[in-house]
Amino acid sequence: MAISHFQFNVCVDCSDNLYTITDTSSGTVTAPVTAETLTITYPNDDSVTLDLFANNDTLFVNSLNSSALGCTSVSIVFDVANSSDYNLYVVYTDANGDIDVQSITVPSDGNATAEEIGGAIVSALSANGVTASYSSGVVTFSGSGFSIAAVNNSTTNILISSVTAETLTDGKYILAWSLTDNDSTYTSTIESYFLCDVECCVRGKMSTIDVDCDCTGDKATDAAIEAMLMLQGIKAAAACGKDAKADKLLVGLQAICNNDCKSC
After folding, report:
1. In 26-140, which ranges are continuous DSSP H helix?
2. CA distances from residue 46 to 6, 35, 247, 248 in whole angstroms, order as listed
3. What's the pLDDT at 154?
4. The whole model's pTM is what?
């Protein structure tokens, strides 16, 4: 049976500064797969393409999770009870200020120990300029201004367990997935607004409202309500495809959160 519905969804975890892209397609690929890519366009319009190509089946049969761009430290855990390759991507800013990506594949025959796989991942990361170490089933790597994306398929699971030093940048992310198998080329695109920072800001402002105060015109309360309305406006505009309006509201809300709004 061929692919009947080609789609995916995006889930943002603001508390861990991660986002997960999950395959929700219907049907199956018709081997051989000859091309598969995932292109991520960030709010600043920089983009990077992850080559998910596999010769016999799609790698992206479960999900892909990614840390925020600009991280200085990330940890991952992995499942060693399998015979499939481990696939990671390091996204970074090069010397010219452009976004680039390095693909890392660590093969496994199902007999490797956790130490052997962890050591291989560490070596591959180090070859890409990222300092890494392995201990007790966890690979921890660090550097300056990078992101890690990990592919989780039906037999190989790599999970990002912690991220430090960078949050997901607020704004519109465009994610485009393309796959070519023996039947056809399929494409699916999602535009998603990540709003972690401004949502945290709004929650903070709302939490300062004095519910026992019966006064009117309280500046803190008015500012909190205004911020909440702007946040909901961003979500509504984005849902209706009014990106320009959503972007304008986001800039205004960021000004309020950064105390740059002199009229507040």
Report:
1. 114-127
2. 25, 22, 16, 19
3. 75
4. 0.88
